UniProtKB/TrEMBL annotation:
Keyword Lipid biosynthesis attached: no
Keyword DNA damage annotated: yes
Family in the record: Belongs to the DNA glycosylase MPG family.
Class in the EC hierarchy, top level: hydrolase
EC number(s) from the headed UniProt entry: 3.2.2.-
Any GO MF annotation of the entry: DNA binding
InterPro entries assigned to the protein according to its UniProt record, in alphabetical order: Formyl_transferase-like_C_sf (IPR011034), MPG (IPR003180), MPG_sf (IPR036995)
PANTHER family from the UniProt entry: DNA-3-METHYLADENINE GLYCOSYLASE
Protein name: Putative 3-methyladenine DNA glycosylase
Pfam families for this protein: Pur_DNA_glyco (PF02245)
Length: 190
DNA sequence: GTAACGATTTCCT
DNA sequence: GGAAATCGTTACT
């Protein structure tokens, strides 16, 4: 199976558009000579400065979040409750916005994923969460700061896209004021 | 150096 | 549906 890597300009669009555009495309990880491919089914936009739920709210900058201020197309991984979350830096340099990959469906390298995840790919709970998919794809903090444009981890173009993604309210961020009502979470329209 | 918090997952009731 | 687990990063003394 060959998956065409999406070029750099793809990432240089608004965070919302990027979040929608990612749905239906492939998340690809070249790991130890094996190709792991998952179809992206769920994403979430984090609008940095305006978004209280985001680590870069108010242009806050720390060691961990500085990658958000770099050029779009970078990999931003974040450790949470012993789990690793995967983000795609969007917009443009100096604009700390990113898209969180929240869910995938295994496509290629399934046996390897099952081994990494320790669960059957038949299970609907296999990779339907931010921490689960990073485990299934073998993604860790090692990926922090890499680029989707020329690294072992990248987004692959899927010729046959599905219908328009559905926007929903976000979840899991109850303590972030009004930001939790923003419809910035996108799921595949089935 | 120490304390508090969190973009989650999983298990229990 | 609700609570505990669990640990790196952040913020504060």
């Amino acid at each position: 199976m060959s998956v065409e890597r999406i070029p750099a300009h793809f990432y240089a669009q608004s965070t919302i558009d990027l979040a929608k555009a990612l749905i239906g495309n492939y998340l690809v990880h070249f790991l130890n000579g094996e190709l792991l491919v998952g179809r992206i089914t769920e994403t979430e936009a984090y609008l940095g400065v305006l978004d209280r739920a985001c680590h870069s709210y108010g242009r806050k900058q720390t060691k961990r979040t500085r990658i958000l201020y770099e050029d779009p197309g970078h990999v931003y991984t974040y450790t949470m409750h012993t789990h690793c979350l995967l983000n795609v830096v969007a917009e443009r340099s100096g604009q700390p916005e990113a898209v969180l990959i929240r869910g995938i469906e295994p496509v290629c390298g399934i046996e390897k994923m099952e081994s990494l995840r320790g669960k059957s790919a038949q299970d609907k709970q296999f990779a339907n969460g931010p921490g689960k998919l990073t485990q299934a794809m073998g993604i860790s903090m090692n990926a922090y700061g890499e680029s989707f444009i020329d690294g072992p981890l990248y987004i692959g173009y899927n010729g046959q896209k599905n219908g328009a993604p559905v926007a929903t309210r976000r979840i899991g961020i109850e303590n972030t004021g009004q930001a939790k009502y923003f419809p910035f979470r996108f799921i595949e329209n089935k």
